[in-house]
Amino acid sequence: MGCSEGKEKNNADDFTQIREQSDELCKEIGDVLFKNKQINEVSKLSQTLILKIKSLADDNRKLKTEIKNQKDKCKQLKAKNLELKSTSDRLTGASTQAKQQITTMINTIHLVKTQRDKIRSHRLNKRYANILRKLSYKYDTVAQKSFLLWKNCLREDKKVPQENMHQLKIF
User: Fold this and answer.
1) What is the rounded distance in angstroms from the CA atom of residue 97 to the CA atom of residue 160?
2) 5-20 burial, b for 16+ CB within 10 Å, e for fewer?
3) Where are the domains of the chain?
């Protein structure tokens, strides 16, 4: 009987040892499963972050494109502004020139009318009076046309056409 008790004791020790090893393995398996679960969660978070980074990169590209478009629009507006400034300067010059010519015409008309009035008052030669009257009428007509032309050019914001410049000049 001693032999069989030794075998049972050995079997019990082996069983206890196997149980302890099994418990340790279960514990290690539990640790591995816990760590695997943590790795899966980190992996999901990483994928979410990657998607967010891709989204931000797309937004960044869109913003860069929009900034480039806005810069192009700004350049176009600057060019248009320079063009308008140039046009404004030309119109100011044409307006000043037309004003000077109209002033000269008005002064000449006044001079002609004054001379006509002097001739009438002194009852000088009728021939000269008629010539001065015709000249006065022509200057009145030219002055009115010039003034209307100048006024229309200012209203329409354009330069006095070259073909009409002769109308602004005094005979």
Assistant:
1) 10
2) eeeeeeeeeeeeeeee
3) 2-168
Q: Round to whole Å and give the CA distance between 90 and 159.
A: 7
DSSP string for residues in 113-164: HHHHHHHHHHT--HHHHHHHHHHHHHHHHHHHHHHHHHHHHHHTT-PPPGGG
Tally Cβ neighbours within 10 Å of residue 64: 10
CA distance 59 to 61: 5
Question: Rounded to an integer, what distance in angstroms lies between the CA atom of residue 105 and that of residue 131?
Answer: 18
Which tens digits make up the pLDDT trace of 116-154? 777 666 655 666 666 766 777 666 676 666 666 666 665
Q: Of 30, 142, 143, which is closest to residue 22 (Cα–Cα)?
A: 30
- Per the confidence metrics, is the pTM higher than 0.90? no
Q: CA 60, CA 67: separation in Å to the nearest integer?
A: 10
First and final CA of the chain: distance in angstroms?
156
Take residue 49 and report the two structure tokens written for it. Answer: 């972050």
